[in-house]
Amino acid sequence: MSAPDVLVIGAGITxxxxxxxxxxxxxxxxxxxxxxxxxMASGWTLAGVRQSGRHxxxxxxxxxxxxxxxxxxxxxxxxxxxxxDGNLRLAxxxxxxxxxxxxxxxxxxxxxxxxxxTDLDDIIDIAPGLSxxxxxxxxxxTDGHADPVATVTAYLGKAVAGGARVxxxxxVLGLTDRGGRITGVRTDxxxxxxxxVLAAPGIDVNSLLEPLGHAIPLRRPIVTVLRxxxxxxxxxxxxxxxxxxxxxxxxxxxxxxxxxGAQDWSGAMDLVDGRPTARPRxxxxxxxxxxxxxxxxxxxxxxxxxxxxxxxxxxxxxxxVIDHVPGIDNLVVxxxxxxxxxxxxxxxxxxxxDLALGRAPRLALDAFRFGRFDGMExxxxxxxxxx
Length: 387
Ligand SMILES: Cc1cc2nc3c(=O)[nH]c(=O)nc-3n(C[C@H](O)[C@H](O)[C@H](O)COP(=O)(O)OP(=O)(O)OC[C@H]3O[C@@H](n4cnc5c(N)ncnc54)[C@H](O)[C@@H]3O)c2cc1C
Hints:
- This protein is an alpha+beta fold.
- It has helices at 13-24, 41-44, 59-76, 94-109, 120-126, 148-161, 205-209, 282-295, 345-356, and strands spanning 6-9, 29-33, 48-49, 87-91, 115-117, 136-140, 144-145, 165-168, 172-178, 181-187, 191-192, 196-199, 222-228, 238-241, 246-250, 256-263, 269-272, 275-278, 304-311, 321-324, 331-335.
- Helix 1 runs parallel beside helix 6 (148-161) and helix 1 (13-24) crosses helix 9.
- Flavin-adenine dinucleotide binds next to helix 1, strand 2, helix 2, strand 13 and strand 19.
């Protein structure tokens, strides 16, 4: 293939959604990934698809994404595992009730269908396996969840059918800039010259940006993820909690996939069967089981299929960067999704594609500017309401 108009770095949800949009706009596209589709955050994820709990700046993206999700499988011609079964965010004490009360007030004012449930019977009707000690919950019936690997695979398949070239198992080692443009992309196998580079490399974004004199201030905490063996249908919505220290959903396979809050991470990762793997500490696994079991009492009795660590790319304001890299015309970055970039992928990928093609972005990107952290040394954001 001749030089691509756009080289997309990263075959997670952001990169593949961007690639499809670019191909459909008539661009010659190559998508490159060091490991393979959904090898990092887009495989580690809980994969909740939610509007509830979103930052006001991200809510329009989440609303636009949820408008697409129900038709996505038909559009992509392959399963996404999407289920619009709602999001139930639980309060376990008085302080959490107040957090949810404020959330519901604010998000209803912003137009979201979100209700505060204070009667336990109403909550148990939605999720029968819950502990009777739950005090209240916010309920968003239009939220849901999906199968992340199936979704990324579906996007990639459609992009390839549209003409995208896919180079998996190839690592971008560096970008060469000259005169305010990227003039070359050096991989572990070759040099690529692309019209524009769209970088969606997740937690590794700064290894590409720092040699160019730029960086996004990122904290990279770990989230412990556990998965049970298949269970009879017991949980339709995604469960979250007011302080974001756990979340849970039941996959369509019947497996429960549950997550902890964010914890400090040593930074060590190794490859298992060609996939990057981060390992949570025993203590975090035990804490996660205990915390989930407080709200879903029969969780502790389920057989475990597996567990893993998921690493987040947490920015200081827990919002992503979707922008040109300052001073480099043909380099667009979409990263820093801070633990909630899966559900909005059908919108953030195309927004990055808009920038790569020089089109006016279809939604406002002011809150996601690269330069907003200028002068900031460290990332201080707490994990917002994930799940
Ligand atoms: C435990 C956990 C739970 C989460 N829960 C939710 C949730 O419920 N809802 C939600 O919306 N979001 C959730 N998220 C966040 C969401 O999963 C991520 O924001 C999203 O998947 C990020 O997608 P991405 O495409 O930007 O990055 P990634 O999926 O990380 O993809 C980046 C890709 O770039 C490749 N790459 C990196 N560097 C290079 C290089 N130099 N050369 C070649 N390739 C490279 C990597 O191999 C990787 O495949 C969660 C995340 C985690 C970890």
